[in-house]
Amino acid sequence: xxxxxxxxxxxxxxxxxxxxxxxxxxxxxxxxxxxxxxxxxxxxxxxxxxxxxxxxxxxxxxxxxxxxxxxxxxxxxxxxxxxxxxxxxxxxxxxxxxxxxxxxxxxxxxxxxxxxxxxxxxxxxxxxxxxxxxxxxxxxxxxxxxxxxxxxxxxxxxxxxxxxxxxxxxxxxxxxxxxxxxxxxxxxxxxxxxxxxxxxxxxxxxxxxxxxxxxxxxxxxxxxxxxxxxxxxxxxxxxxx
Length: 241
Known about the structure:
The protein has 3 domains: about 5-90, Arc Repressor Mutant, subunit A (Orthogonal Bundle), CATH 1.10.10; about 95-180, His-Me finger endonuclease fold (3-Layer(aba) Sandwich), CATH 3.40.1800; about 210-240. Helix content is about 40%, strand content about 10%. The protein contains 11 helices and 5 strands. The chain has helices at about 5-15, 20-30, 35-40, 50-55, 100-110, 135, 155-165, 165-170, 175-180, 210-220, 225-240, and strands at about 35, 60-70, 75-80, 125-130, 150. A 3-stranded antiparallel beta sheet has the order 1-3-2. Strands 4-5 form a two-stranded antiparallel ribbon. A hairpin with a 5-residue loop joins strand 2 (about 60-70) and strand 3. The N and C termini lie far apart (about 65 Å).
């Protein structure tokens, strides 16, 4: 059973929208916490941190801690934290962006994902904070396009996982660190989630697919994983330059 919560906080919890968010909130209200096992095994969510993040983005403070799962391994668990710990605008929840703002963003950057550079239909592009909401929150007033980017759902999920496992996201909350990360500025960055890593997201579409299939077949014939095979080709090419 969850600990007794202030009436104002319970009232706030009633405003939480979305199936995943309500699942997390209702489970914690009933049992006092929810684990990654609960989210996967009971509710069928393959990416538990995303479900918890949905709640945090609506302004509800949730803390993460470790507990022991049914197989004896340590797993993540989540519970409400003290409402007094909420900082600035976070309590108000993450804003919902208008269609007008999305139109403005796509007019500025084009109908392509800022991470993989693949062109998508309007409906498949999402608005993403360059610096995660959990680190900087939303400033009041009209959003500044330079602080956001269009991103596809696939890249958004990868970014979410990477950010949620970054020390700056979980504990330090320094916007300047995020601003030098690949996930904020893929065209110019110093690290990826604090690791000295370089990344290239490449997508083959439509008439380019046969090129990908050929590369895949060549890597199999060379008994190499495709990423290593492509790196070897590039390495040989750059040595000739």
